[in-house]
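Team,

Forwarding the record for the chain on the shared tracking sheet. I've put the sequence and predicted structure together so nobody has to dig through attachments.
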Amino acid sequence: MNINKKIRAKEVRLIDQDGNQAGILPLHQALAVAEAAGLDLVEVSPNASPPVCKIMDYGKYKYQQTKKQQEAKKRASTFQVKEIKVRPKTSDHDLGTKIGHIKRFIDNRDKVKVTVMFRGREIAFADRGRAMLQRVMEETSDFAVVEQQPKFEGRTMMMVLSPK
């Protein structure tokens, strides 16, 4: 039996194992009630006047809290941002393959960052990069939505797609 020894007050407001208020009792009497029930006396609200204590099975309570946290973690939707990189001179067939990868990522509920990288004098072909991203948008429009429109950052142009 785990009895909370940090309670400093002489009197406590006691809540029994059913959740009913048992009233304000001296600390030693509250400990005796908890011991008679075979449970623990746990301080619930130390800042109240008088402090609130509850009779419960503390080990079982901690176990239930852990289970609730695990269940919440299981239900939380997680996604990753996958990145597809292309160049302005990427061929149509290769771009089709990349679009197939995008579809697979979107089916897994991941976001996809499509990046067009420009090297050297390729920066002069920004319109090719924009056209390539436009083609990706059109071919993925039935299963993906554009979360971030194409934009230039240095020598790269990028957009972000997410599942519909």
